[in-house]
Amino acid sequence: MTVVPLLSVQHLTMRFGGLVAIDDLSFDAADREITAIIGPNGAGKTTVFNCLTGFYQPTVGRLTLTHGGGTFLLERLEGHRIAKEARVARTFQNIRLFPRMTALENLVVAQHNRLMRASGYTVLGLLGHPGYRRAEREAVELARHWLERTGLADRADRDAGSLPYGAQRRLEIARAMCTRPALLCLDEPAAGLNPRESAELNDLLLAVREEERIGILLIEHDMSVVMGISDHIVVLDYGKRIADGSPRTVRNDPTVIRAYLGEEDDEELPPEVLVDLRGVPPGC
Amino acid sequence: MAVAGDPAPAAPPIAAILKDAALAAIVTFALALPLVGFETIDVSGVGLGLNFRFAAVAIATATVFLGRIGLAAIALGRPIAVLVPSAGVAAAAALGPWPMRTVAWLVAIAAAVLALRAGLALRRLAPGAGAGAAIPARIVGRLRRVAPPLLLALGVAFPFLPFTDQRLLDIAILVVTYVMLGWGLNIVVGLAGLLDLGYVAFYAVGAYTFGLLALNFDVGFWGALPAAGALAAMVGLLLGFPVLRLRGDYLAIVTLGFGEIIRIVLQNWWEVTGGPNGVSNIPRPTFFGLPFKAEPDEGEATFATFLGLDFSPAHRVTFLYFIILAMALIVNAFTRRIRRLPVGRAWEALREDEIACRALGINPTNTKLSAFAIGAMFAGFAGSFFAARQGFISPESFTFIESAVILAIVVLGGMGSQLGIVLAAIVLIGLPEFLRELNQFRMLAFGAGMVAIMVWRPLGLLSHREPTIRLHATGDRA
Amino acid sequence: MEYLLQQIINGLTLGAIYGLIAIGYTMVYGIIGMINFAHGDVFMIGAFISIITFALLWMGGVTSIPLAIVLVLFTTMLFTAVYGWTVERIAYRPLRGSFRLAPLISAIGMSIFLQNYVQLLQGARIKPLPPLISGGIVLMEGDGFAVQINYTQMIIIAVTVALMTAFTLLITRTPLGRAQRACEQDRGMAALLGVDVDRTISLTFVMGAALAAVAGLMFALYYGVVDFFIGFLAGLKAFTAAVLGGIGSLPGAMLGGILIGLIEALWSGYFSVEYKDVAAFAVLVLVLVFRPTGLLGRPEIEKV
After folding, report:
1. CB-CB contact of A179 with A110 (8 Å)
2. pLDDT tens digits along C186-198
3. How many beta carbons lie within 10 A of that of residue C250, not counting itself?
4. What is the pTM (predicted TM-score) of this model?
5. A1-87+181-284 falls under which CATH superfamily?
6. Taking CB atoms and an 8 Å limit, are A55 and C301 in contact across chains?
């Protein structure tokens, strides 16, 4: 295939002092696909995200993002420009909403750069220019759309910090979507959700992929989510890529099973762990 | 004082209570003994002598001991046993002819606080008091709706009220100046969450801009005003650019350092600033070019002659009052408007979570800089008004304490609450000016108030935040 | 050359005082991550308690100066430590878990309170302490200029070195020090493992205050005058010292103190006395902007 992937990670290495968090990692993530990054705790998954979204400066490596808007070398962009220009949006493992602002305000803040332009960098807005009012109405409409998609419309005017945990997770995804991203990076979106909520999350993510036609990069421990919706899985262990492929191949890869379950023999493992890895039928 | 006279009969942990009270009393004794018990005095020849004030130490220790027992009794559900004696002590200490007035007042305040807490506890215990907790919220809500228009009307009508004399109007000018400074700092601290301990530096820049322009180039107040704001904003940008990426508390200390540097430079660069002597003979603002003068020069029109009025010094003071009121209201309107613009929302978002802001494509440095510079600009305006009003400025007016006072107004008012800032300025600035005897305790109360607010209501007295935009009309909120 | 040496001696003395105060800042920052803005005022209270105790000993007829200094040292440490403990208990402990800037605002309030408390109780005028120790050792004699280290300076440097040694042993060798370091790393985990976190934090404030008290005594001996406002400047400079050395690091605090003392003395000696505070503040700003971890501090990795 000669199709240029949406995201191409090449030889990414991240060292903190003597600690090598990511070691020569390369993988691609395609447009309109859900790519999952999995691996045991401490494998370096969140570090990959932090490099992609500009919170860390990679020691070595090239992170290329290509979409309709152009080609971007993410490792050379400042954090806020990655979101603004390269259109990479992310959520955080430990939810980072603006707790004392309402759900709606959270989503409007996400559209900051468009609104900033519409408000003439504040000057026209202060003078009450109608163009800004129109832009703000559009922003609210987009926010309303995502609030409805995430089932939060009736709680739009409540402080984000007062919402229940599952709602906060969804609101964070809605907020990321309001930046109109080309690549959406989700850091453990199913963490702390109950089974029903995580099934709803699966539906939401599949729908986002179909309707918005964007690529999704997913870090997740919940295997029902990973195996259920991923098109492509990258497995990390100690900062290295140990497997890369479809859910089916990864699930049966002995290296992966060893990484997750240690060096012991498979037979000695508690059955529910194996079920986690193997038992989920593909495409559920 | 028989606060301890009625220990609860239902086997309360008397020993534990007494032990706790005794410990508190010992600590109080150790605190009070060196600094309250002895007063250093100058003795000619020797240099240093001491006065003894052991009675005050004993009273402080006893007050803490009994007060501690009283608090324990309230916690055990015996508020009446506390209320009656503590109210009695409060009254006796406040009204009696005691020799040590200050000590008596402090005892009275401590006893009154205890009585108040007992009273509140009593109301909570009273039957049918379930809704008791909701009342303050409702009152605050109504206050928030009714107070702004009332205050505005009062503010506009103030110079014409029958009881307003020149002294009161002077105090009002001072209060409104602090309201304006509070509203300006509120943009930086309350909205953007940047703790600026050097705010007074921008006030100084504004004041000196006008003072020096008037002194050297004969520029009037209205001509200097934009320059003062622009220069203060520029200094804000210059100072802010390198430091705004620092963490919150480091930023606070660095701004404090900058504020002190500016003050020291003003004090020592006497070729330009006049050093500790400052700048004097700063001209007063004119009314569209008409000065306020008793004896105009030959052929010169003044405010009074132009309007055919008799000259009165009250004209000028009234005019000054309206200038500062208008400037303050502009800051207020500006703040309310900008909160609904993307930059204002980004300020609040930055206050809440800077990392999330970066992930949403908001440039944190620029956003912080804009808040910092706009806050500085308003301080610059206020500073040039200060220079115009005083007619004289010196570095002494721009010490760290001044920054702390403005910060105290913002903090006590409830960070982000414009109404709270007005109330805080009236209480913190107006009251002590009016009751001069309280002046020496003013800063003491400021400090204690800041601690108390942080401990009890860290988000301020009126900490309600109005959303900047709603999806649903206010009525159908769940 | 002689002049330079003299300025270095003066700077070292000053640096010892700043270093003693800086330890209080650095320890508190290390353990609860807050700037104890009132620490400078605790130092000021120490200075006041020491001159009051001197005056009291005088009136009691103590004439032996070494005895008086030792008695004053311990009294001042004891009573000032109570202030340190109370400040933490009242103004900071209720704020654990409050919003980020709450403890700093509370600390600023406490600082204003303490200054005005002392001003009200002791008056706003400068309090003189008559010179107790006169004389010194002439180290070098150049052309018309004698390099001298006087006895007060020797006492200050000797006491500081002794205290620093004792203190380092306390932190590295005792269970208290271990508890303290555990709380620095992870307060929640330390509590789970049976460390009394509240007590450890309280003791940190007590130790910081005791050292600040010694600094207060030294200040009174060295300058001979004390007023209610000395805590502000000295506190800021000591904080600068703590940051310069790397906040959280004890040797850093001492190193930073000495550097700030030297900078101040040399700046005053060679450039201008008027701008000596500007030099200290400029160091603060430059260090925070360009090297926020200081000379000996560990880098912080931003957690996302």
Report:
1. yes
2. 788 888 887 888 8
3. 22
4. 0.83
5. P-loop containing nucleotide triphosphate hydrolases (3.40.50.300)
6. no
Contact B253, C35 (CB under 8 A): yes
Residue B437 CA to residue A277 CA, distance in Å, equals 77
**pLDDT per position as a tens digit, A78-137:** 878 888 888 888 898 888 999 888 999 999 998 888 888 777 777 777 777 777 888 888
User: To the nearest whole angstrom, how far is the Cα of C63 from the nearest Cα of chain A?
Assistant: 60
| Residue B89 CB-density burial (10 A; 0-12 exposed, 13-18 middle, 19+ buried) | buried
- Between strands B279-280 and B392-393, the pairing is antiparallel
Question: Given a cut of 90, is residue C41 above it in pLDDT?
Answer: yes
Q: Which of B359, B467, B472 sits opposite A105 (nearest CB)?
A: B467
The CA distance from C100 to the nearest CA of chain A, in Å, is 14
Give the Cα separation of B332 and B339 in Å (integer). Answer: 11
Cβ separation B246–C289 shorter than 8 A: yes
Mean pLDDT is lowest, of B403-412, B423-432, C69-78, for B423-432
The pLDDT of residue A85 is 82
Reduced to 3 states, what is the DSSP secondary structure of residue A36?
A: strand
Query: C81 CB near a chain B CB, below 8 Å?
Result: no
Residues of B in contact with C82 (CB under 8 A): 27, 30-31
How confident is the model over B216-237, as pLDDT tens digits? 887 888 888 899 999 999 999 9
Interface contact flag, B451 C103, Cβ < 8 Å: no
- Residue C107 and residue C232: Cα distance in Å, rounded? 13
Residue-level pLDDT at A191: 83
pLDDT in tens, C130-174: 777 777 777 777 666 777 888 888 889 989 999 888 888 888 888
C-alpha span between B170 and B392 (Å, rounded): 16
Residue whose C-alpha is closest to residue C261's, from C1, C2, C13:
C13
| A92:C302 CB<8 A | no
Phi, then psi, of C270 in degrees rounded to 5: -110, -30
Mean pLDDT throughout B328-334? Answer: 92
At A133 the pLDDT is 83
Q: What is the mean pLDDT of residues C252-272?
A: 88
C69-100 residue pLDDT tens = 899 999 999 999 999 999 999 999 988 877 77
Tell me whether residues A104 and B469 touch, CB distance under 8 A: yes
Interface of A with B in 117-146 (CB under 8 A): 119, 121-122, 125-126, 132, 136, 140, 143-144
Residue of chain B whose Cα is closest to the Cα of A81: B361
Query: Residue A205: is it exposed, middle or buried by C-beta count within 10 angstroms (0-12/13-18/19+)?
Result: buried
Contacts of B36 in chain C (CB under 8 A): 121
In 3D space, the residue among C50, C40, C15 whose CA is nearest the CA of residue C127 turns out to be C50
Nearest to A179 by CA among A86, A78, A272, A41: A86
Q: Do B39 and C48 touch (CB under 8 A)?
A: no
Contact of B235 with B376, CB cutoff 8 Å? yes
Q: Domain ranges in chain A?
A: 1-87+181-284, 97-180
> What is the four-CA torsion angle of C57, C60, C61, C62, rounded to 10 degrees?
-30
Q: Higher-confidence residue: B128 or C59?
A: C59
Determine the 3-state secondary structure of C20 from DSSP: helix
pLDDT greater than 80 at residue A8: yes
Average pLDDT over residues C173-202: 83
What A138-144 contacts at long range (C-beta under 8 Å, 24+ apart), as own/partner pairs, is A139/A108, A139/A111, A139/A114, A139/A115, A140/A104, A140/A108, A140/B469, A140/B471, A142/A107, A142/A111, A142/A178, A143/A104, A143/A107, A143/A108, A143/A111, A143/A174, A143/A178, A143/B471, A144/B471
Domain boundaries, chain C: 2-238
Residues 6 or more apart whose Cβ sits within 8 Å of residue A137: none
Chains that touch B (3 or more CB pairs under 8 A): A, C
